[in-house]
Design goal:
Strand content: 25-35%
Radius of gyration: 17 Å
CATH topology: CNF1/YfiH-like putative cysteine hydrolases
Largest sheet: 6 strands, mixed
CATH architecture: 4-Layer Sandwich
Order of helices and strands: EEHEHEEEEEEHHEEHHEEHEE
Structural class: alpha+beta
Helix content: 10-25%
CATH class: Alpha Beta
Shape: globular
CATH superfamily: CNF1/YfiH-like putative cysteine hydrolases
Amino acid sequence: MFQTKGTINLFYFKNLSEQPAIKHFITGKKINTPGYEHTSLNMSFNTQAIPETADNFNLLSSETNIPLSQFVFQYQTHSSNVSVVGTNHVTNYKNHTLNCIHNNDALVTATKNIALFIKAADCVPIFLFDCKKNVIAAIHSGWKGTVQNITQQTINVMKGQFGTQPENIIAGIGPAIGVCCYEVGSEVYTNATLLLNTDAVFSHNIVTGKYHLNLKETNKNLLIKAGVPLKNIEITDICTKCSGSDFFSARNKDTGRFGGGIMLQ
């Protein structure tokens, strides 16, 4: 990934940035506007800071040149649910619950000028772009979504609705908690063994007796298993907990969320 420092800090995948048919971004935590009354770029309406979030979306819109009237939101529940969206799903961000896609964690569209928006604070943000059929997807994948293989579910929807072939998908796996910090309990390990080669994505801390899960590597492996070529996948090495000054992290007890968006233009 690379970073730009304008009014706000934004991060971009190199591979997706080479595709003129799309725009995308991942927000950081910092606001670089002198005198701005809010200290961090919280993008979540599910906190008490709703006026702050509304102002922050104005900054995001200005920095990305994407009108807020083109955003589609979802209420994420760590599911494997995927929705295909169109212009009827765009909404007024100040009343984002009006047309918000409820109980959903992945958005897919082939409609231009719709910004698929997801938010995270340790879970994995994933963007997919079918460069042949011009189809995009935005995925929020925590451990529950990962072990339910939400990446495969999303690709299945892209196949069924738009004829996507996985070998034509370009993917970006964004900042998320790293294996260094993601200590998990036996419930996660047990659920993961049903789907994954656990030796490849878990490490065992002999001091604590706990397992550590590499969420980003897991999702990369699931994309490959679904047919996406390794050369088409960009995966960031940013750990949100370690990079707490740049990204929100639930493990750091942050209540805010960073966001990500992808749009066909």
